[in-house]
Amino acid sequence: MAAATASDVSGYDRPTELKAFDQTKTGVKGLVDAGIRQIPRIFIHPPETTPKTSTTFEIPIVDLGSTDRASTVEKIRAASENLGFFQVVNHGIPVTVMDEMLQGVRRFHEQDMEVKKRIYSRDFSRSVVYNSNFDLYSSAAANWRDTFYSFMAPSPPPSDELSEVCRDIQIEYSNQVMKLGSLLFRLISEALGLNANHLRDLDCDKGLAFLGHCYPPCPQPDLTMGTTKHTDAGFLTVLLQDEIGGLQILHQNQWIDVPPTPGALVINIGDLLQASLMISNDKLRSVEHRVVANEKGLRVSVACFFTTALAPSTKVYGPIKELVSDENPPRYRETTVQEYSQYSFSTGLGVPRLDHLKI
């Protein structure tokens, strides 16, 4: 597979190179392990999409152990409406569990390539899927990232189908995140001025997708992205990131670093909670974010998405009637989680997907 610089990205057979990369079943890490010095052309992004400049901004930290519930709810409301992102501490998940989860993801991606090849797939109906770039064939440029994926709720796969090198901690961590999600949805419901169980009664906390990301060190990080700018399609995302960092959010047309904070988890509002499944009618913000590529070392993270995308449900979501009035009419049409998830999956990252539902 030929490599290139940003100056000669045209005039090549991209579909053939995508297929050739995919068929190796070794992902981005396979390229790095092979010692490449220049990244393949399929990973090169247009220069205007890869500026790494960022500005300093304090990402709100919410102490979930606080006894002042009203203050906690207000902090979550302000962060969810203004920034779409916040961090939580004293969230109930032990640091030892978080650290072991990160090590488990690292073990998965660093295990023998032949073991990983056996589960490399683009069939997302499988209980465990490992591949590079879920939208490899639909995106404008590939991202410098490999991922393994499982739905851990409401129907987790049999434990023996999970990877041996991280199955125990994956189950433990996912169970802990489900408990945290129940608390967060209660607090967000209160922040919206609703009954504490409102979002939980809408099944927002019932489904959990687990993604274990690996961002290998990149020899030309200025030419590519770890993850293209995008919003998350689900209700809520809980992110555990290691010490390398690289996550940035877009705020007032500027990229802001979200540096790793020891013991903290990063929480962000998803599309289906902004429109919250058109539920909040834009009272909450699903914000574009990205991950920059780096030369420092292999970065791992765990993104847990609260979504019922695979659950066979006909439940229809639309703007919550309590949040709609003559002065604040509905901004989104009703949809099901499955319909919106299928649309989001087909478009890939980087497409403003909520426009699909605007009235």
TrEMBL record:
Question: Domain of life here?
Answer: Eukaryota
All residue ranges annotated as the Fe2OG dioxygenase domain in the record: 206-309
What SUPFAM superfamilies does the annotation carry?
Clavaminate synthase-like
Q: Pfam families given for it? A: 2OG-FeII_Oxy, DIOX_N
For whether the record's keyword set contains Metal-binding, the answer is yes
Q: Which GO terms label this protein's molecular function in UniProt?
A: dioxygenase activity; L-ascorbic acid binding; metal ion binding; oxidoreductase activity, acting on paired donors, with incorporation or reduction of molecular oxygen
Q: Which InterPro entries match?
A: DIOX_N (IPR026992), IPNS-like_FE2OG_OXY (IPR044861), IPNS-like_sf (IPR027443), Oxoglu/Fe-dep_dioxygenase_dom (IPR005123)
Q: Which UniProt keywords apply?
A: Iron, Metal-binding, Oxidoreductase, Vitamin C
Q: Which family does it belong to?
A: Belongs to the iron/ascorbate-dependent oxidoreductase family.
| UniProt protein name | Fe2OG dioxygenase domain-containing protein
Please report the organism this UniProt entry assigns to the protein: Lactuca sativa
